[in-house]
Amino acid sequence: MRKIDYFDMTSDSGEFEDIIRVIEGVRCAKGPKGCKMCADLGIQNNLCLIRIYKEASEEPRLLIELDREDQQYFTYDVLKCFDNIPQARDYAHEHEVWDVEY
User: Is the pTM of this model over 0.85?
Assistant: First the structure.
């Protein structure tokens, strides 16, 4: 059986969507709960690729508020952090991530 990577799945599934947002409190994809360096650095904003989930889950996840007409709060995972806006813009263009806010 093949291991499924986050990036193997597409946002067309209807279960989730990949977006890019400035997220508070992360330096890397693990965030302060999974990375000692993130925790030691304290609160920090970073431009990140995140996967928002459209259905509730029993897995503990972070919560984000988005302006959507059908739903306001979404759980999410951080998939990747970018060093700068051009890097995020290039990634979004290459991977067809349309919902982007810097």
Answer: no
